[in-house]
Specification:
The chain is mainly β and 327 residues long. Helix content is 6%, strand content 39%. It has helices at 20-24, 30-37, 41-46, and strands spanning 60-63, 75-78, 83-86, 97-103, 106-112, 119-125, 131-134, 143-147, 150-154, 160-165, 172-175, 181-188, 191-197, 206-212, 222-230, 235-242, 247-251, 258-262, 265-270, 281-284, 290-294, 300-303, 320-322. Strand 5 and strand 6 (119-125) form a beta hairpin. The radius of gyration is 20 Å and the shape is globular.
Length: 327
Amino acid sequence: MASCSAPATDITPYFPPDLIPKVARRLTSLQDFFALRASCRAYRAVLPLTASNLASQAPLLLLAPDQDQTTESPALFHLSLRRLIRFCLPCTRQDSSYSFFSLGCRVVISYYLRNPSRRELHLVHLLTGEQTRLPSPEGSFNHFVLSGDLLITWGYFGVTIRFCRLGATDWSVASIRGSYVLDCMICVKGTIYALVSTGYDFDNPVYLLAAVNLSDSKCHGELILVITMEFNPNVYHVFQWKSGEAKWVRITSLGGCALFFALSYFVGCLEPDHPGIRKDCIYFNDEGLWSEYSSVDGSFRRSDAVYPEGKLQKGFRAPVWVFPSMC
């Protein structure tokens, strides 16, 4: 995104530069933010890409065409404005297939070369283009968790966890004890939590692990369990972990926050009153473009977009959540 912005000029700013961050925090479109940032050097200097400056930026969906869709280009989709932001996706290769994993305003891009056993991993900051080459883990992996500079990955219903520091040349390995398999993992205040089970059973509900703070409206504080109770339309029950009582308690309010999942994996939480996002809702990208479920009234709706004349899932990969405010 930053590389697509016009270079900052030396013209005298119309507004005092110290007021510009206050203006930027009200902008909900990356196009408007980067246009303001490119107005002059003084504005660019006071608008680094930080979480506070990007606090009001809406979540986006990264849309990448399938390998055989050579006429299409990647884009970021703005949910509330229903606007496409075209950009150059870093380090894509024509001779390989690839997949994406959401990490706030970053994504892990996994390349599968002509030999399926050979893979390349890159951690890419979508707003700056900064890239970090990652070691390629052995075996399968379904998602990634980033805590500081610690990156963790695992295979779905596996027993092995792989982790490394950014810049490391190899992965360390840990295993789950007992007769359990790993469903998912999240990081809460620097602590990694894992959801484990005894295996896949179609008769059991689907469990999703998330994190939200229900006391001071800052996300990533409390451990939350979301259970899929019904399908078509989807119905979810939400539970909060009460550590003092050592039990899960059902809740219907998320403190005004919104939770985001990529398939069955928790990828982010936005605080109350975030522009374009409904309070106490859970967002998914599993079917169609995205879906929204209200934990308060139980309403469920799916939404799609046109790009340019057909539904996005025709010729496009499953969209990936991108959060500019988690910079």
